[in-house]
């Protein structure tokens, strides 16, 4: 057996390095060498002759003999011995090519296992630890990496779920918004139809009245024509009489004729035609004026995409109330999830703006402004530090944003919020008599949005707070 191993070792040994082949290649003379050993030999010799027979190689590209490589690796112990574990994983063992022993040390500097017999002396200046310790430490690192990957995947799955929720919610929004748009246009169309019928009826009534007036005048004219015609006939008959009969009867005929001739000439009535200008002039504008009683303008529109799940909005997005249950809404970035807050749909970054909010006897609310970057997911108290400037009402008292109780003469039914962005002022008034409540001054650096917080109404009659409409300017 030893002789066979010696013979096999001789067959599988490189004549340059005297070691078992690594990536063996064959020359045209059939001599075989390690690919790297042959290349190094040729570089030193500065020719491409066979190291054994000195015959010049005719091959430019040397190909690794993989069958011989497999045999050499198997003989030297470099081949990995694999066995299936119970969990279906592969166990990999590496043994030293010279001693057929498993490495017991691990060099952290070179990040590889080290043979204690033939390689340990080469690593005196390196950090070397037992393999078991290295494996334990590296597995702990890998477990940490695994935990990071799992956490990252969890975050991606959460975002995926949120997007799916947003898709489903968008479909509901589509149907609901379509219905409300159609309902609003149906109201407008009904108003326009009624307005059209009313104006057509007024046109027909005017035509009928003026037709009656002309008919009366025509009848009177016809009567005058008939009377004149009779007088003309009488005069003509009188002119045909002989002397004595004429003298006895002309006087009455002449008196009648002169009486009718002295009547004033007939005059046409003015305004007998339909007043087209009255019916058509500025028609659209006048219909729009009449429409003012049917439509309303709100200076602030609430944004449902920012509303907490506890809040319910009116169809026209100008009123909000606190519900008993938390609605299942997508956790989109704009939404307030930790508090019953909602923002306006339009922000302000310059100029003066104002709006009024009807609060009635609602027991707890905040009304004011919030910056665009306000925290909508975590802990966020109504204060300038959080980016919120508002008037607070709870426990029957009114409080400013720094926690000071305000003195008011009466319970406020409405609040007027007034902002001068450029001067950095947010003011609150009682709009009934424009009594000033308080003003907060700040240097604003980003867009501000109307801000509302609504708590449970309790036993109060007022269950919602609403944006008061303003008159439309024409």
UniProtKB/TrEMBL annotation:
PROSITE patterns: B302_SPRY, ZF_BBOX, ZF_RING_1, ZF_RING_2. Keywords: Coiled coil, Metal-binding, Zinc, Zinc-finger. Residues 132-169, 193-224 form a coiled coil. InterPro entries: B30.2/SPRY (IPR001870), B30.2/SPRY_sf (IPR043136), Butyrophylin_SPRY (IPR003879), ConA-like_dom_sf (IPR013320), PRY (IPR006574), SPRY_dom (IPR003877), TRIM/RBCC (IPR050143), Znf_B-box (IPR000315). CDD domains: SPRY_PRY_TRIM35. Residues 280-472 form the B30.2/SPRY domain. One of its GO terms (molecular function) is zinc ion binding. Residues 14-54 form the RING-type domain. It comes from the Eukaryota. Residues 91-131 form the B box-type domain. Gene3D superfamilies: 2.60.120.920, Classic Zinc Finger, Zinc/RING finger domain, C3HC4 (zinc finger). This is Nuclear factor 7, brain-like. It comes from Anabas testudineus (Climbing perch).
């Amino acid at each position: 057996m030893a002789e066979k191993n010696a013979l096999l070792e001789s067959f599988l040994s490189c004549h340059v390095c005297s070691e078992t082949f690594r990536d063996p290649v064959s020359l045209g003379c059939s001599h075989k060498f390690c690919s790297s050993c042959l290349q190094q030999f040729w570089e030193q010799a500065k020719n491409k002759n066979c190291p054994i027979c000195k015959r010049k190689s005719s091959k430019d590209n040397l190909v690794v003999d993989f069958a011989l490589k497999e045999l050499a690796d198997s003989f030297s112990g470099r081949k990995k011995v694999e066995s299936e574990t119970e969990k279906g994983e592969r166990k990999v063992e590496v043994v030293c090519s010279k001693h057929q022993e498993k490495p017991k040390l691990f060099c952290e500097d070179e990040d590889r296992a080290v043979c204690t017999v033939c390689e340990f002396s080469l690593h005196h200046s390196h950090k070397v630890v037992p393999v078991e310790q290295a494996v334990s430490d590296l597995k702990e690192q890998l477990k940490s990496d695994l935990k990071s990957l799992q956490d990252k995947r969890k975050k991606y799955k959460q975002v995926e779920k949120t997007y799916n929720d947003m898709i489903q919610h968008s479909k509901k929004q589509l149907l609901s918004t379509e219905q409300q748009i159609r309902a609003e246009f149906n109201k407008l169309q009904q108003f326009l139809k009624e307005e059209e019928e009313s104006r057509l009826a007024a046109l027909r009534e005017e035509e009928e009245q003026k037709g009656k007036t002309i008919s009366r005048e025509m009848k009177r004219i016809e009567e005058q024509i008939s009377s004149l015609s009779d007088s003309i006939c009488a005069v003509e008959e009188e002119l045909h009489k002989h002397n004595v009969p004429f003298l006895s009867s002309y006087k009455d005929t002449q008196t009648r004729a002169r009486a009718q001739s002295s009547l004033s000439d007939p005059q046409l009535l003015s305004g007998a035609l339909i007043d087209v200008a009255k019916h058509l002039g500025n028609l659209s504008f006048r219909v729009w004026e009449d429409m003012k009683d049917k439509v309303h303008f709100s200076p602030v529109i609430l944004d449902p995409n920012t509303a907490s799940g506890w809040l319910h909005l009116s169809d026209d997005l100008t009123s909000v109330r606190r519900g008993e249950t938390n609605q299942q809404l997508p956790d989109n970035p704009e939404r307030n999830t930790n508090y019953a807050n909602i923002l306006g749909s339009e922000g302000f970054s310059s100029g003066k703006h104002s709006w009024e909010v009807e609060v009635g006897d609602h027991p707890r609310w905040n009304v004011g402004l919030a910056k665009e970057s306000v925290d909508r997911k975590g802990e966020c108290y109504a204060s300038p530090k959080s980016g919120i400037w508002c008037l607070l009402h709870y426990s029957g008292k009114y409080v400013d944003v720094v926690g000071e109780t305000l003195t008011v003469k009466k319970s406020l039914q409405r609040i007027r919020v007034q902002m001068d962005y450029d001067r950095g002022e947010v003011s609150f008034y009682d709009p009934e008599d424009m009594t000033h409540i308080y003003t907060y001054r700040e240097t604003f650096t980003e867009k501000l949005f109307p801000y509302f917080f609504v708590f449970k109404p309790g036993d109060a009659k007022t269950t919602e707070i609403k944006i008061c409409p303003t008159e439309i300017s024409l």
